[in-house]
């Protein structure tokens, strides 16, 4: 069985790791940042991600090279895409109106 290329194989050895890109990872969508990671949310909870307010049907992109490992609805988050990045990192893109990618697809920033 053929294996899918990793983002590093697709872009070459000069591609940067997710961990090394800390602080320089692109926003997945244009809009207004309304909640940052780690901000208190009520008495005993903190934000586990960024919340970005966008226009309806805004285009959402991969914030960093990765493989699509999940697509579909998930709990209260609605349609979601989970990307796996090198080094064991994941990005969760939630609150989507439509999903135009498939599991196993490699996305490049």
Distinct helical segment count: 1
Low-confidence stretches: none
**What's the helical proportion of residues?**
under 10%
| Strand segment tally | 6
**N- and C-termini, Cα separation:** 27 Å
Q: What is the SS-derived class? A: mainly beta
Order of helices and strands: HEEEEEE
Quick check: average pLDDT? 85
Q: Into which percentage range does the β-strand content fall?
A: 25-35%
Task: Describe the structure in brief.
The chain contains one helix and six strands, in the order αββββββ. It has 109 residues and is mainly beta.
Write structural notes for this entry:
The chain has 109 residues and is mainly β. The chain has one helix spanning 7-11; strands spanning 32-35, 51-53, 66-74, 78-85, 89-94, 106-107. A hairpin with a 3-residue loop joins strand 4 (78-85) and strand 5. The radius of gyration is 15 Å and the shape is globular. 12% of the residues are buried.
Element layout with pairings:
Elements: H1 7-11, E1 32-35, E2 51-53, E3 66-74, E4 78-85, E5 89-94, E6 106-107
Antiparallel strand pairs: 1-2, 3-4, 3-6, 4-5
Task: From the structure above, extract its key features.
single chain; 109 residues; mainly beta; 4-stranded antiparallel β-sheet; two-stranded antiparallel ribbon; 1 helix; 29% strand; globular
């Amino acid at each position: 069985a053929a294996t899918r290329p990793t983002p590093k194989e697709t872009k070459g050895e000069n591609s940067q790791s997710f961990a090394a890109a800390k602080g320089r990872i692109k926003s997945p969508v244009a809009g207004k940042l309304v909640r940052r990671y780690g901000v208190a949310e009520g008495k005993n909870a903190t934000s586990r991600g960024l919340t970005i307010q966008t226009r309806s049907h805004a285009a959402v992109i991969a914030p960093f090279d990765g493989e699509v490992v999940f697509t579909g609805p998930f709990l209260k988050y609605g349609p979601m895409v989970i990307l796996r990045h090198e080094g064991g990192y994941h990005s969760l893109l939630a609150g989507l109106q439509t999903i135009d990618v498939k599991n196993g697809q490699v996305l490049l920033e």
